[in-house]
Amino acid sequence: MKFLVLWKIDLGLLSSEMQRAVGNMPAYGEKLEATGKVVSRYHVVGAHGGAWIYEVDSHEEFERLLAMAPVFNFAHYDVYTLADMAKVGGDGTAAAEESGLDTKIIR
Predict the structure, then answer these.
(1) Pairing between strand 75-82 and 2-9?
(2) Do the beta carbons of residue 37 and residue 24 sit within 8 Å?
(3) Residue 94: inside a domain, yes or no?
(4) What letters, b where the CB count within 10 A reaches 16 and e where it falls short, cover 37-47?
(5) What InterPro entries does the record tag this protein with (predicted)?
(6) What is the pLDDT along the chain (107 residues), one digit of tens a residue?
(7) What is the pTM of this model?
């Protein structure tokens, strides 16, 4: 299962601890990319944060990896479950079992 995570640093929490956490993010991301748990990482231009795509085996694994992020306590997160468009059925529905969530179609 894949998740898109948009994270943005809360500048109201600016501290030396936050600065260290932000400085540790590249190494954390490289480690997750090397293990295949993060498939893409992007900096959002003009924002203090990023967009990462996680590929994990379970919701629990995803939550654990997200909570281990150095900036976890300093950022706001928007999380989206992704469905592979190649697995869309003939009726336009994505494979709900892939995400473990109910699928709703807006027409």
Answers:
(1) antiparallel
(2) no
(3) yes
(4) bbeebeeeeee
(5) Dimeric_a/b-barrel (IPR011008), MLI_dom (IPR026029)
(6) 999 999 999 888 889 999 999 999 999 999 999 999 999 999 999 889 999 999 999 999 999 999 999 999 999 999 999 998 887 666 656 555 555 554 444 33
(7) 0.77
